[in-house]
Design brief:
By secondary structure, the chain is mainly α. Helices cover 71% and strands 3% of the residues. A hairpin with a 2-residue loop joins strand 1 and strand 2.
């Protein structure tokens, strides 16, 4: 197994550990700075999420740079991304930090586009990530980090960046999903 695929697998293995920290309450006093408070669980989960999210671009870069792109990597990379985002979103819903409808829209779009990609593969076509798909990923990652950090540091200036990033993530998620389907409507049979 090459280095890029090992990095992708590491991202997958981080998902349950990160989810553990989000969902299992440790009996430890929270970190408090003035009026700001965050549980150590969230701190650890955020660090793990940032590490996992940063490996997304790294594994692809290494695979392309070293010319070690494999079918396993093509399968595992998007799976790892979907597992990471879905696990965090579902966990955020469980701990009342995100409304379920937001998670449903984002996860539904991810699986709908994955389904479209599978149809394309059966047709012998590989659908590359669009610029909107890349922006969607960046905005979703930003949203998750802001939520995990309880809107830090924006809460010190009374800016509800968590709300802003949620709406931005929903908007770009929906738009990028529509964009994929419109640009690939020839893959959808109308008979």
């Amino acid at each position: 197994m090459n280095l890029a695929n090992r990095i992708t697998l590491a991202r997958i293995f981080l998902v349950p550990i990160m989810t553990f920290f989000l969902l299992v309450k440790l009996d430890v006093d929270p970190l408090t700075i003035g009026n700001y408070s965050i549980t150590w669980n969230q701190v650890f989960a955020t660090l793990l999420f940032i590490i996992a999210a940063s490996t997304d671009g790294l594994d692809g870069y290494i695979a392309r740079k070293r010319k070690i792109v494999t079918n396993l990597g093509k399968l595992l990379d998007p799976l790892a991304d979907k597992l990471l985002v879905a696990a965090v979103l579902i966990s955020l819903v469980e701990i009342d930090k995100l409304d379920a409808w937001v998670a449903i829209i984002i996860i539904s779009r991810e699986w709908a586009v994955t389904g479209l990609r599978q149809v394309a593969l059966l047709d012998g076509t590989v659908m590359a990530a669009s610029k909107w798909g890349k922006w969607k990923t960046a905005v979703q990652i930003t949203m998750i980090i802001v939520i995990l950090l309880n809107n830090f540091p924006f809460n010190f200036i009374d800016l509800q960046m968590d709300v802003v990033t949620i709406w931005a993530a929903v908007a770009i998620t929906v738009y990028s999903g529509i964009d994929y389907f419109v640009k690939n409507k020839n893959l959808i049979p109308v008979d």
